[in-house]
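Good morning,

Attaching, inline, the backbone tokens for the sequence recovery test we're adding to the shared suite. The designed sequence is right after.
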């Protein structure tokens, strides 16, 4: 709180001094003059601000270092968890690809079998077709 009071007092003193000098005719406020005044005040202002509000003490820096290390640890943990998840998903994808390969082979076998069945049926006589039908679906006359 003392820092703010000091800053307010310094600003008021500077404004009073500028006002008195302007009334006396020593200051002629043109943009170039005003720019030079602000540039001249920037250095002392920065110096005072750094002296009064300097938060770069050892404890603060150590706290920032600890937070950064904790953040790196959290990032490393997340990365390990994501890497494990990615590995599991890749294994699952590989398993599914294997299943697709097996199913493709079965599908091709079924297509070949269907083509062969069509050819076999064409070559069968009507009596053989009737017996095969009775074997597959039963005889409805007897039931």
């Amino acid at each position: 709180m003392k820092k703010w009071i000091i800053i307010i007092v310094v600003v008021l003193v500077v404004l009073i001094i500028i006002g008195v000098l302007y009334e006396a005719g020593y200051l002629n406020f043109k943009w170039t003059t005003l720019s030079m005044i602000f540039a001249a005040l920037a250095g002392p202002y920065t110096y005072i601000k750094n002296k009064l509000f300097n938060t770069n003490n050892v404890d603060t820096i150590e706290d920032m270092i600890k937070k950064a290390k904790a953040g790196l640890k959290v990032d490393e943990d997340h990365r390990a968890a994501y890497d494990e998840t990615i590995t599991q998903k890749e294994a699952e994808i590989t398993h599914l690809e294997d299943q697709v390969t097996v199913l493709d082979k079965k599908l091709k076998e079924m297509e070949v079998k269907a083509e062969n069945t069509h050819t076999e049926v064409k070559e069968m006589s009507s009596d053989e077709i009737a017996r095969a039908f009775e074997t597959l679906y039963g005889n409805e006359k007897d039931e």
